[in-house]
Amino acid sequence: MSDTIQLTVNGMTCKHCVAAVEKALAAVDGVDEVIRVTLEPGSATVKGNAPTEALIAAVKEAGYKASL
Predict the structure, then answer these.
(1) Most buried by CB count within 10 Å: which residue of 46, 49, 51, 67?
(2) Please, what are the domains in the chain?
């Protein structure tokens, strides 16, 4: 069973930032789907069984900050 996880993402300023976060999240093991990444208000929603810590780490590695 997949969970839906909502993250707050800080530091995105343009559509390229959104694409970078989408790509980083999609690469995390356990992510079935990146449902949505939005510039305003700065959020990401993913579906899957990936650990939250791994999602936050992927966003950080892409150059942004994330939290639950």
Answers:
(1) 46
(2) 3-67 (3.30.70.100)
| Selection from 48, 42, 51 nearest residue 7 by Cα | 42
Cis peptide leading into residue 51 (ω within 30°): no
Nearest to 59 by CA among 18, 16, 1: 18
CA distances to 5, 11, 39 from 33, in Å: 11, 22, 18
- pLDDT of residue 1 exceeding 90, the answer is no
Compute CA distances 62 → 6, 7, 11, 32, 44, whole Å. 18, 15, 11, 19, 14
The two most distant CA atoms of the chain are separated, in Å, by 34
* pLDDT digit string, tens, across residues 53-65: 999 999 999 999 9
